[in-house]
Amino acid sequence: MPQATVAVTFDVTEPHLQNCLDSLARQRGGGRDGARAPGSAAPVEVVLVPVLGAAGRAEEGGQEEGDQGDEAVESAREDARAVAAAFAESPPPGLTVTLLAGGPAPDRPAARARATAATSGTHLLFLEGSDALTSYSLDYLLHSAADTHSDLVAGNVYKFDELGASPSKAHRKYCNKHRVAEDPRDLPALVADGTLGNKLWRRGFWESLADHSLDPEDADLGLRRALLSARTADVLPAPVLLRRKREDASVPLDKAVLTRRITAMGELAAGLPGADRDLWDRLLLRGELHQILLRLDEADEEARAVAVDLLNGYLDHVPARLLHGLNVLDRLLYHLVRKRRVSDVLEVAVFAKSVEIKKAPVVRRGLGYYVRYPFFESEDPARAVPREVYRLNEEIRVRQKTEEIHWSRGRLHVSGRIGIRHLRARRRWQQHVVAFAVNTATHRRVRVPVRVRLAAEYRLPDVADAARHDYGGFTAVLDPNRLRTSGSWEPGDWKLELVVLNRGITRRRFVSGPVPGPPERPGYHQVAEDVWVRPHWNRDRQLVVSVEPTRVRVTGHRFDTRTRELELEGELVSAPAARDAELRLTRRPGTAELTYPVFVHDGRFIVRMHAEELLARSVTECGGVIRQEEWDVHLATPRERGVPLVLPDEVATAAYADEGIRRELAVQRTATGHLKLRAGHARPTVDRARWQGRDLVLEGEFLDRAELRLVARARGRDEEHSLAVERSGHRFTARFSPADVATLSGTLSLPAGTYQLWGRVSDPAAESGSTDVGVEFSDALIPDLPLETRTRERAYVLSYQGSGIPVLQVGSDLRPSERGAFAQRALREHHYPAQRREPVTEGILFDTYTGRQYSDSPQSVYAELRGRERWADYPMSWLVADGQVRLPDDLVPVRHRGREYYEALARSRYLVTNSRQPAWFHRRPDQVVVQTWHGSMLKRIGFDVENIRGKSRDYFDKLAWETAQWDYLVSPSPWATPILRRAFRFEGEILETGYPRNDVFFSPDRDAIAERTRRRLGLPEGKKVVLYAPTWRDDKYYTRGKHKLDLHLDLRRMHDKLGEDHVLLVRRHPRVVDSVPIVGEGFVHDVSLYPEIMELFLITDVLVTDYSSMMFDFANTGRPMLFFTYDLESYRDNLRGFYFDFEETAPGPLLTESDEVVDALLNIDEVAARSEASYRAFVEQFCPLDDGHAAARVVDRVFGRD
């Protein structure tokens, strides 16, 4: 058995070292030989090596430490070393720990060299002190190394921080399945991976690697080069490394850095043989060099020129055939680099990061297809690019999804959509499909009948009333009898291949991509006595049809509560070498193994396993994000590693648990009809479900007597909703109306999306007081799903995904004929112009944040109008996105992007909005548009923003068109008026009235509003209210318009220090889609959905914000403000920029650490007193018009006096 050496290199100021070392202490066995008993395996060798951090290197070089001071740096060093010394002095069982003597290493490569020289383990793992290992990592990696003797073993990676963990997208590509002794050159994503902590290296191989004398900052390049020297590598799918999220690790666009790094790339490439050199070049050209070019618009002119010169030098050694094999965007970029057209490279970089690139049309020229990227067929000779640069080759890919798969009359019917990108089959003759069943071992091919059919637009559900259809649908029918060999059934796996012919282009694709839900569980079918056909989806999501004779069958199971043993009974249908058989259990996805003897007599067998051995090996880490409780079960013999056990449908599944124990051992059936076991937390099992009116009613069983709640948690964003649960013994009933959810904005439908059901179980041992466990559907219920109900607005569907994960799917409030790009284009280009030709109708359309709220200045204008007799009964409507806004009865909701949305913009007499309008909106002469805007001028806006991220090249042209549609623009102050005029290049009338939204601060009803707001939020009396309301970050997002909650406050520490006499309200910016982590009972309140922030200001004692314009509003309260500006330099200099010196003008202190915020809140009176003069000056400069009458002034000017 190999022995592992773990080298932990830690920055001397590393604050998270203890977490890293704790993960080493948690390392446990559970592999082939079970748990690691004392003396049963060689101890793991751990060596700790301190590294001089950046601050320390600056000090060594004679540079100043800055404001932090020498004492703070020295204290941080002592803390990290003290943690390491304590761990080395008292090592956990199974570890030998050494803290290397001497001073810190100058850098991490030097630290790794010292660690290697000082240790003797057969295998090396290098871990950074900020990261951590999963509890099974070392056993998992070592067992693979022992089996294959590969030069390295790589495992999957999860990223984590204080808010949670998530899979690393960069590692998902090559860690998607178990790979054994593969050539790294066949795994380009592995070679491109510069992560070190997820890899276990064979010492002999590591020590044989050449020293390329790289700068320490370029060590990742050396690592990638090392991977090309490896003979074989193993890849494991389960996460082994928990990598702490770092700040942006992009290469600085600095002349010296670019020179050093690109030169190193070339030098490393020079010594590679032909195929390896091609792979090296291809990965860099598609990866880091590509990224440098896309960021050149952020660099200064000198760095741009240097980058282009260096890239040209690199490209001198890249063959033309390799460049030709790149995609169109890369070919275009490198063509421009070769021509030294720097300004054109910048234009393409902006284009590539904008929405434009997704809309670029494809055209046909002769027999080829080309994409219209910048300079395509340019008439300017100086900007011309050869047409062949734009030719689509591999980009013309086939895309396919499977929407239905079922058995009928003994045949397997597979239906879905297939087509070649950019080549829609508008007519029947344009696309033909041929299908084959292909044996994966013998490659025998069997023709399968397939029918091409009319289907809805590819990205949408296939419904009859969709806006557009084409001949991209298919249905293939597989007769299993065709898979026999010479009339007999032979075990084997088959894939279904589709061959698509479309206008002279042929593409092949194995059937894959099941849509979530029933297609993921195809079901199985008996074709002869003890012969079954079992379709399933492999790790690549491809359909595999397995012909499988039954060899081992389970006939029963029982649990002995006295011995706590699970007993399985069964029969050997076609017996393996029974006398030497053993039962092998493998914890998914292969991270542990257990074996048990099998007792055989007369073709029948019995096997017993102790529940505690399985339960002790359940894995729950990162708050349940990593959870391993399921075990595959096989019968193993000396000749065969694994024969699966069939669990017939007539044998019931069951969960076994002792009274008072929160865990259970469950006997379950896979989607292919095989036995699996689950050992871990007790889980709620739903066995009955129905819609009762608008209510979803779920009934089921839960063996744990702990308090249970069911939770519907949104996929793709941080949002959850609780279901009411009633208990009666082990039975439970949950009731939930997804169309009527109580929110701070009133009763609303759940937003569109998919919600997974979880059980939240009280758990005193958990930090949060509860543990979330997955909810399961019983086998008897799954055939009855999906269950659907509809309201007037949308559909709600109870279904399942994957192997049977319960989900609630909430549909859009758009009708099928309004969904999708084609439908929206038709409404935009046909319906809207037609409506503009109709007469204008009397009415006002209000809009706040593109339909996301009922609030802000438009709401104040609406209220002012309704209070005037002339406008009391005037028709008014409000834009609503996805039904997520609660409106007064006298306002008509207008669905955003619905048919009436286009009608309202085309025909409403008035439009009052605080947000941007679509580029296609064209104000009519008899329409009036009032832009109230929504921010005050700290951050640069409009034409004043130099670096517009993610926008199209014609962004400013569109902005100029949009502002030309405004009749009036509201200004909050005389100081803001010239900025608004310049930033929007607005030539119309600016209403210098103050913002109407601030009238509430001067309302005679403000105390009553405040009291109502406190009651509505359920805030306790006598506690100070702190409101944290940060703005959004342009560079932190999921998709366009959906930004992440970049929360840097330590909520746990705030609760510990402030929880006794404070409550913390947290409000997300409307662009942010994540919800707020709740810490401490009654301390943190997510008030993001509260409809009007001004009402929150009325109850707020202290505002904590950053660069949000709400500081200008809150200043009217005179109450203290704190500014948590942890990224001030980056935000000011790289993202948006400011209109004034924020550090000098801010009406409160600028704080950069979470602890500083806590300390300021604890001493808020002193802090506020120090800012009194700046606060007063701030109000005088920015708030002179706020007097409670701004809405009246706007109404008087736009709508006239009564």
TrEMBL record:
Residues 57-78 are annotated as: Disordered. GO terms for biological process: teichoic acid biosynthetic process. It comes from the Bacteria. Coiled coil: none annotated. The keyword Membrane applies. It comes from Nocardiopsis sinuspersici. Keywords: Cell membrane, Membrane, Teichoic acid biosynthesis, Transferase. This is CDP-glycerol glycerophosphotransferase. InterPro entries: Glycerophosphate_synth (IPR007554), Nucleotide-diphossugar_trans (IPR029044), TagF_C (IPR043148), TagF_N (IPR043149), Teichoic_Acid_Biosynth (IPR051612). Belongs to the CDP-glycerol glycerophosphotransferase family. The keyword Electron transport does not apply. GO terms for cellular component: plasma membrane. One of its GO terms (molecular function) is CDP-glycerol glycerophosphotransferase activity. It is a peripheral membrane protein. Residues 61-73 have a biased composition (Acidic residues). It is found in: Cell membrane.
